[in-house]
Amino acid sequence: MGRKKQFLKVEGLNTYLSPFVLVYIERYLNNSKALLRENKLLKLEERNLTEITRAILLKKQFPGLGHPNTTEAQLLAQSLNLISKLNTLKQEAVKLQKLKYNSTDLNHEKELLELWNSFNPDEELSARISDQWKDLGFQGNDPATDFRGMGMLGLKNLLHFSTNYPELSKKVLKDSQDKKYWYPLAIVGINITSYCLDLLIEDSNLLNIHLFQNGISLEQFNEFYSYSMYKFNEYWLQSQLTPFLNDKPFTVMDFEQALELFKKREFNYLISGESTNLIDILANKSKKLN
Q: What are the residue boundaries of the ELMO domain, all occurrences included (predicted)?
C-alpha cells in the first residue's frame, strides 16, 4: 500500500482540505455551545447534512447568508460530510464491541477458526475447546470467554492483523512466546482493541488524522489497530535491550503497567509528527519479512 494524499480534494472546488483542519473543525463543533444542536444532529444515525450545513452557515454568519454555492459553504459541507462518516464509523465500532461472541453463531465460529489458521497455518487445532489456544495468548481453552469485553470487534481486529499481515503477525506471535519474556498475545490484542476504540470515541487527533488521510472506514480502523499491535511488540522487545521499568526488562508480571506505558509513549510519539504514515510502516515491515 502506498502513501495516501496528505490533503483531501474538495468536490467542485480547486482546493484541498487538510486533515489537521478537519480535526480542528470537529473539535470546534464538539466544544461549541452555540452549535450544540447541530453537533447532536450530526451524531444521529439519520442525519440531514444539507440542513445542518445551512444552520451552521446562518448561525456563524458565513458569507452568502446560508447559500450552498459559496466557497465557504462547500468547504463546510465537505468537512461535515467527512465528520459525519467519522460518527458513523464510531457507531459501527461500538456495535461490534457490544456484539458478544456467540459460540452457536456459525459465522462467529468460522472467524475464530480463521484466526487460529492464520496464526498457525502448519498446526491443526485438535478441537474447538483446546489448550492450544493458550499458545496464542488466550487465558483458557475457550477463547470465546476472553472476547467478552470487546466483543466481536476484538476478534475482527485480531483477524485483520493476522490475515492482512501474515508474516508480521507470525513474527509477533513467535516473539510473544519467548520462554523468558513471553506475553499473552491474544490478551494484548484485546487490550489494544480497547485502546484504539477509546481513541476513536474520544476523538483522538492522532487516530482521526489517520482516518481523514487514508479513508474513514472500519478497514482503516483495523489498519491503525494492526500498527498498534506491531508497535507494542516492538516496544516489548525493546525493553529487553533497554529496560524501561525499574531498570529491568518487562516480564508477564509487568504486563498491565507495560501496556499503560506503551499507550502514553505511542500517543506522544504519533502526535509529535515525527512518525511517517503508519500504513507505509506496516507495508515496509511486511515486505522485509516476505
A: 107-270
137: phi > 0 → left, psi -120 to 50 → alpha, else beta; which?
left
Among 27, 55, 87, the domain-final residue is 87
Structural domain boundaries enclosing 139: 99-289
For residues 272 and 180, membership in a common domain is answered with yes
Asked whether residue 94 is domain-assigned, the answer is no
Model's pTM, two decimal places? 0.86
Tally of structural domains, the chain: 2
